[in-house]
Structure formats: structure tokens, C-alpha cells
Design a protein that fits this description.
The structure holds two protein chains of two kinds.
Chain A lengths: L13 H20 L3 H23 L2 H18 L10 H19 L29 H11 L4 H13 L3 H8 L3 H19 L2
Chain B lengths: L16 H7 L4 H13 L1 H19 L10 H10 L18 H8 L23 E3 L20 E6 L5 E8 L4 E6 L9 E8 L5 E5 L6 E4 L5 H4 L3 E8 L13 E7 L3
Antiparallel strand pairs in B: 1-7, 2-3, 3-4, 4-7, 5-6, 5-8, 8-9
Classes of the chains: A mainly alpha, B alpha+beta.
Chain lengths: 200, 261
């Protein structure tokens, strides 16, 4: 499944594209912060499919995801001035707003998914995360991927499930039929190891 | 292996709230507290941003999906409906750029070059329904489906030289494949056809697919269990305008492993 081959460096050609896109997004965000509606609309047109995908991934439900997406862009309009280009890439900042709103919605909605079983043993570690076609993700993606390899299988899988499902410890424990102490232990130890590796 | 839920070695005393917040495992109350802390504790806020950037490759691995065309007008109305049209600059109505352009924005520049593999295979003819992903003028009907029992998986369909032709998000629970074109090599006059090849089985057509736009392909009911098992997704090039085939008649140009999650 889409494993990135070591050795082929997909970033050679994409750096220019990447920095160009980043720069464009950054300018639109800046414009939005100054109340430039045109810049905001351009930003919407360019990023809404990406952010809708992020909302849908957490919420699974198109109607819910659409409502959250509206809220996301209202937030972006209001908070664009808080974006700090030195500290985050524009798309990470935007996508995190979408993800956080989607998770907030999930928490507020009282989880009807609680009964859906989650097969932790069956969740694959994220070997598709560094797919080379993904803009600006490749080198960071490889780093995340490599650091995840240092975790045990359970730790890596639990972290991945948590991220992509947006589940609480309790929900993962319930849905996977695993004691919550075990889930917490896997995830917290995994996060510690991950941190140690990622900040190397 | 750390399978023991141990509470006595100090791991529980270490503050991992920033990481847990970004990972999304905090419950509603703990999330609210974390959000408040972001506002008043710069060191904590910086730690959150660090984790956000570390996990951003996962965010970026999520396939874009065109939102309904109605979303932008609603955003605009929510922000500015109280204003009279005469006041301030009006926003010219704009046609959203084609999905292709948007998808194109998110893909990197794939390395060129073709490689073509030929598969000789036979298969059953299957009926396929294909639904384009939310074209700008048609709000997509809500697909009512049970929540997924198995998480969707992303599969890159690659040419033999490793470049990606499509990314496919297989959702076994809903029985759908979301296909997003990246760059399909090969004779541009031919049309791509998608195949599901369960382990130890022959190829089953999932129908003709588009080169230029994302689309959702429904997996026929009799193949859904196969989509939830190990197998292969493959793309062959077929004569333009043809219907789903029993077996690939042209070269298989890209493929990717579906691994049971």
C-alpha cells in the first residue's frame, strides 16, 4: 500500500511549486486579515476541497461536514490576523482549524459511533502518509513515518486511529474492546517516543 | 512491547496535553481547558503548534473532496448579508475553478516517463454506477451509509516507475472508492478503467473512470467483501467511449495494493 520508496526523491521538482503555493496562500491569508473579500474568496476556492476532506474524514457525514466547513471559514475570516507565517505553514494552520472544528462537533454531538467496533489490530500503520505527490508534505512526512517506525506496532496503530478517527481514549477503548489503561499507555508512551524522535 | 498499562513509572505524570489535544483524544471538557490554556500560556501554545506541524503530513494525506456549491454563498451571506449591495465592493460572482485545477493544486509535480505493464486476465462483466463528486452546480445528495466498521484506506495507484496516477480512498463500509487523479501516463486518447483484483481472484471491473476529475465509484454489493480483503486496484487503458469490460483489453498502466486494515 503506497509505501514510499527510499531513494527516490520526489521533492526535487516540487519545491518550487510548493513554495509558490505557500506564498500564494500566505498572501491570501494576509489579505483576508486586512478584510480583503476577494482574497478571502480566492482562499476559499483554493482550499475548501482540502478542508472539506479534512472535516469529512472526522465526521463521515456530508451534511455535518458542510456545516462545520461554513463555521471553519467564518473562523478563518475572523482569525486570519492571528496567522503567524513564521510558525506554521498556511495549509497546516487552515487544516488544523478545520480538524479542530470537526472534532469539537464530534464531541458536542454525543458519539453515535460509540457502538461501531474498531479493530485496532487491523489498523495499518500509516505507510501512505508520505505519498510523494502530496504538496509540501514529503520531507516532513518521511520524518513522521520514520519516527513512527520506532514505536511498537500497538503504539503506532493506536496513535494513527486516534488521529484519523478523532476518538477520545475512552471511545477507542470502548470500540476496540481494550482496557482504557492499555490504550492510554500505548498512546502516551508512543507520543513520548515520537516527540523524542521528532525533535531530534 | 509496552502492552502493560503501567501507572507507576512516571509516564502518567508527564504533561502531554498539547500532544493529546492535537491528536484529538481529549474529551470535551479537557479540550475546552486546553483551548483556554492556548490563549493564556504561550509555551503551551507553541507546543501545540509544534505537534500540529509534526502531524501535518497526516492531514495532508487526506484526499480533498469538493464541498457542495452552496457552501460559499452561505459563508458569504453569514458574513456580509447585513450589508446593502451598494455599500462597499461587491464580490463578483465567480465560477469555482474546475475540480481538476483544485486537485492539481494539491498534487506535486510527478516525475515523467511511462512504464507499461501488460496483464492478461479475464473477468466478469459488472454493472457499475458512478457518481461524480459534487460538481459545482449540483449539490450532491447525502449518501446515507452506516458508519464505517473498517476505516477507509488510501491507496496510491502507481505507474511502474513509481509515479502516482491516482489516489484511491477505499471505504469498505460504504462500498465506495474515491478516486482523485494525480497524473495518468499513457496514450491520452484512451480511457482509463478501474479494476478490483481480490487476492487469488481475477480482475473485476469497477467501470470506466475519468482522467480529469475526482469521482466516487460504487463497489457492487457482491464485491464489497473483496474490497475489505487484500487485493489490488489497477487501471487499464481502454478504447475511448467504451463500456466496462469483462477483462482489461488494454495495458494495465497503474496499480496499488489494497491491504486489509
Amino acid at each position: 500500500m503506497g509505501r514510499v520508496q527510499e531513494g527516490d526523491d520526489p521533492m526535487i521538482d516540487t519545491d518550487a511549486v510548493d513554495s509558490g503555493d505557500r506564498e500564494q496562500l500566505r498572501r491570501w491569508l494576509l489579505g483576508t486579515a486586512e478584510g480583503d473579500r476577494r482574497a478571502f474568496e480566492d482562499l476559499y476556492q483554493r482550499t475548501s476541497a482540502k478542508l472539506f476532506g479534512v472535516c469529512l474524514r472526522i465526521l463521515h457525514e456530508r451534511n455535518e461536514a458542510e456545516e462545520v466547513l461554513q463555521d471553519v471559514y467564518l473562523t478563518i475570516w475572523r482569525k486570519a490576523s492571528q496567522y503567524d507565517a513564521d510558525r506554521a505553514s498556511p495549509i497546516t494552520w487552515l487544516a488544523m482549524i478545520a480538524r479542530n472544528k470537526a472534532i469539537d462537533r464530534l464531541r458536542a454531538a454525543r458519539v453515535e459511533r460509540a457502538s461501531v467496533p474498531l479493530d485496532l489490530a487491523a489498523e495499518l500503520a500509516g505507510d501512505d502518509v508520505a505519498a510523494p505527490e502530496l504538496v509540501e508534505a514529503a520531507s516532513e512526512g518521511r520524518r513522521l513515518h520514520n519516527c513512527l517506525e520506532e514505536l511498537t506496532g500497538e503504539q503506532g496503530r493506536a496513535i494513527r486511529v486516534a488521529f484519523f478517527e478523532g476518538c477520545t481514549y475512552e471511545e477507542i477503548a470502548h470500540r476496540s474492546g481494550t482496557p482504557i489503561g492499555t490504550i492510554k499507555s500505548w498512546i502516551r508512551r508512543g507520543l513520548l517516543k515520537l516527540k523524542e524522535c521528532l525533535q531530534r | 512491547m509496552s502492552t502493560q498499562p503501567s501507572f507507576d513509572d512516571g509516564v502518567d505524570d508527564i504533561d502531554l496535553t498539547a500532544a493529546e489535544f492535537v491528536l484529538g483524544v481529549l474529551d470535551a471538557d479537557a479540550r475546552r481547558l486546553a483551548l483556554e490554556r492556548i490563549q493564556r500560556d504561550p509555551a503551551f501554545a507553541a507546543e501545540v503548534m509544534r505537534w500540529e506541524s509534526w502531524f501535518s503530513p497526516w492531514l495532508q494525506s487526506i484526499a480533498p473532496v469538493e464541498p457542495p456549491a452552496s457552501t460559499w454563498p452561505r459563508v458569504r451571506a453569514a458574513l456580509w448579508q447585513h450589508e446593502l449591495p451598494e455599500r462597499g465592493p461587491r464580490i463578483a460572482p465567480t465560477v469555482p475553478p474546475s475540480l481538476w485545477n483544485r486537485i492539481g493544486f494539491w498534487r506535486g509535480v510527478a516525475a515523467g516517463g511511462f512504464a507499461v505493464a501488460v496483464a492478461s486476465v479475464t473477468a466478469l462483466l459488472l454493472t457499475v454506477r458512478q457518481v461524480p463528486v459534487a460538481p459545482p452546480t449540483t449539490p450532491t445528495p447525502v449518501v446515507v451509509a452506516p458508519p464505517p466498521a473498517a476505516a477507509p484506506m488510501v491507496v496510491s495507484l502507481r505507474h511502474d516507475d513509481g509515479t502516482t496516477a491516482y489516489t484511491a480512498t477505499v471505504d469498505p463500509a460504504r462500498g465506495t472508492v474515491l478516486l482523485v487523479p494525480v497524473r495518468l501516463e499513457g496514450d491520452p486518447t484512451l480511457s482509463p478503467e478501474l479494476w478490483l483484483i481480490p487476492e487469488g481472484d481475477k480482475p473485476h471491473s469497477l467501470g470506466m473512470i475519468r482522467r480529469d476529475a475526482a469521482m466516487v465509484v460504487n463497489i457492487p454489493a457482491n464485491l464489497r467483501s473483496a474490497a475489505n480483503a487484500n487485493g489490488l486496484l489497477a487501471i487499464s487503458l481502454e478504447p475511448a467511449g467504451s463500456q466496462a469490460h469483462e477483462a482489461p483489453t488494454g495495458p494495465v498502466v497503474a496499480k496499488g495494493n489494497v491491504v486489509r486494515l
